[in-house]
Design brief:
The chain is α/β, with parallel strands linked by helices. 32% of the residues lie in helices and 23% in strands. The chain has a 6-stranded parallel β-sheet, with helices on both faces. It has a two-stranded parallel ribbon with strand order 7-8.
């Protein structure tokens, strides 16, 4: 099995009334994507790994929140929305491959992370109707436009960054352990001591 082609560098924006699935929905990027998809008028299905993360996704506007560690999570998404128009894949691996099967005809699949340790390996021949993209493949101009859009939504109060944990700089190893253990919510910050005057 070969890795997927990513012909579209631009991340997909859901249209009003479409269904968008966000994996890693309580992480730093995922929590923003939940809000952005909701702001675009999509019906948002948040997928995360535990009760606290699912609660956060609901607080951020997700219409449904489903634990992807449950063996029937794909069936639960289908029962909730039938299929999805957009997948934001922040987990990769088997979870990303499973999410790919939920796409409706002419769906869009955007990889933004690989919390599982690898991007979803999907054959090039699988679903040629699906447009695939990676946020990491954005051009400079696309990045500038996306940042402007995100900052405008934040200024308007429609987008709230989630700061889940703060660690003093000398505890950077604890911060990394928490991130690797996937026990964090939103962004994890390292806080340096203020410089004495």
């Amino acid at each position: 099995m070969v890795g997927p082609r990513w012909p579209s560098p631009s991340p997909p924006t859901p249209q009003p009334g479409e269904a968008a699935l966000v994996e890693g929905a309580a992480g730093g990027v995922g929590s923003l994507l939940v809000q952005m998809a909701k702001n675009a008028g999509a019906r948002v299905v948040a997928v995360a790994s535990g009760a606290q993360k699912l609660d956060l996704a609901r607080q951020l506007g997700a219409d449904a929140a489903i634990a992807y560690r449950e063996p029937d999570w794909v069936d639960r998404v289908r029962a909730e929305v039938g299929g999805v128009d957009v997948v934001y894949d922040g987990v990769g691996g088997q979870t990303g491959r499973d999410a790919f099967t939920l796409l409706k005809p002419a769906g869009r699949f955007c990889a933004f992370g690989m919390a599982s340790g690898s991007f979803a390996s999907i054959p090039d021949a699988a679903r040629p109707d699906v447009t695939r993209s990676k946020i990491a493949a954005l051009t400079r101009q696309q990045t500038v436009e996306l940042v402007r859009s995100v900052l405008a939504q934040a200024v308007d109060g429609r987008l709230r960054p989630v700061i889940g944990h703060r660690f003093p700089l000398e505890r950077a190893d604890d911060a990394h352990a928490a991130i690797e253990g996937r026990s964090t919510l939103g962004k994890t910050l390292l806080v340096p001591h203020p410089t004495p005057r």
